[in-house]
Amino acid sequence: MKPYTAEKILNIALMGHSGAGKTSIAEAMLKLSGAAERLGKVDAGNTVCDDSPEEVYRKSSVSAAVAPLEWKGCKINLLDAPGLLDFAGAAAEAARAADSAVIVVSGRDGVAVGTEKAVETAEKRGLAKAFFVNGLCDESARFYRVFEDLKASFGPAVCPVVVPFIENGKANIYINLLEYKAYDYSNGAPVEVDMPDMGDHRLQGLRTAICEAVAETSDELFEKYFSGQDFTPEEVIVGISKGVKSGTIMPVFCGDALLMRGMEQFLDGITWLLPSAADKAGEIGTDVNGDPVELAIKEDAATAAICFKTIADPFVGKVSFLKCISGKVEQDGTLLNMRTGTSEHIGKVVMMRGKKQEAMRVIPAGDIGAVLKLSGVSTGDTLCAPTRKVVLDGIDYPPASLRMAIEPENQGEEDKVAQAVFRLIEEDPTIGFENNTETHEMVISGLG
Questions:
Q1: Could you list the residue range(s) of the whole structural domain that residue 321 is in?
Q2: 115-155 pLDDT, tens per residue?
Q3: CATH number of the domain bearing residue 371
Q4: Among 397, 385, 396, 395, which Cα is nearest to 287's?
Q5: Cα distance between residue 418 and residue 423, in whole Å
Q6: Are 302 and 330 in contact (CB under 8 A)?
Q7: Which strand (E) or helix (H) includes residue 79?
C-alpha cells in the first residue's frame, strides 16, 4: 500500500452491541475495496479480523483488530472492536486509536445496551459518530422502527443519509437522501434506478429529520429553521459535513453486510463525511514538568506515538500497535519510552491486516502501524523523540468487575502460574493480579 498523508487517512472504530455485524461489515468493506480476495464469514471462521482460535471457536470478537483498506484515494484504518462487555477493554483500545466511530445497530433488535455503551465510549473520547443499521435483508428487520429508536435515544442529531425502500417486505433498493438517488441491489451489483414513491408522509419525515440535525450545527441555522425558512441544498450538504466532523450530527447509513448491499454508499459516505486524521488537529500531551503540550499532526515535527494494543504472537513474537500522533515512526530509528525512561530501537515496521503483514517502514503522523519485538513497550506507553519529551493520554480501561483466588494444580508451581498470568496481562491490561498478604492467596481480577 502506498503512503498517505494525514489529510487522506481515516481511523475508524467499528463498535456496537455483540452480534450486530461489525466484523461482517469490516469483511464487506475489505472485499469491496480489494483488500481481501473473498468475503469472509463469521460462522465459517474465515474472517480477516477474527483470526485467533478463540474468536473462531466463539464466533465472536474478543480483541480489537486492525484492518487497513484503500477507497477512492483515501486510506481507511478499520478498528474492529468486540461488542461483548467482557472485552470492553479492547473496545477502549480501538477508541483510543480512532478518530471516528461507526456504531453498528441490528436492523432486527435495534438499540441495545452495547449501542449505548459504544456511544458513551465515543463521546468520552470526543470521536465523530455515525450509525450503520445492518441486516436489512432479514425478514424480521424493521429499519424505520430502529431509526425512530435511534432518534428517541440520541436526539435530533441523528440524521438519515441512506434509507431503504421496502417493497413486498424486501429491502432491495437503497436511497441516498443527499444525492437524492436510488440504487437497486436485486441482482447483486448496484444499479441506479428512478426514485421510488416512498409516500409523502415518510419522505417529509426524513427531510424533517435531516433539517433538525442541520439546525443543531449553528445558531444561525437554528434560528432560520425555527423561523419557518427552508434550507438551501448547499446549506444542507455543508451543514451535515461540518456537523459530522464537529460531532453535532450522527449520520445513519444502512444495508446488509452479508449480501454486500448498501456498502458502496456507506464507503463513499464515510470517506466524505467523517473527519480525517488531519481534521482531528492533534492532541494535548504533558511534558516532564506536567505542563500541557500541543501536538500537531505534522510529519516534520518531533515524534510522539501511543502504543494502543499489544499481541504476543507465538511465531512472530511481540507485536506493538502504534498510532503516530506527531512526526513519524521510522524503521531502525530510536525513540524514548516515557514510562521506563529507556531508549527503544524501532525494528521492523509493518502494516497488519489480520495475520498478514505488509512492509511499511514508516508510520507517518495520523497513521497506524505495528512494530515487531519492542520488548520493553507495553500497551498505553508513549514513545517520543528525546528532543521533545511528552506523555500522551493512555487508555481508559473499565474497572474490574470480578475477582477470584487461583491456585496451581501442583504445589510449588506458584511462580509458573504468575508468569503465565503476566503474559496474559501483556495482551489484556484489564486483567489484574496480586498476592493477597492477608489470605496468602493469588487473586486475579477482570471484566468477566
A1: 283-391
A2: 999 999 999 999 999 999 999 988 889 999 999 999 999 99
A3: 2.40.30.10
A4: 385
A5: 9
A6: no
A7: strand 74-80
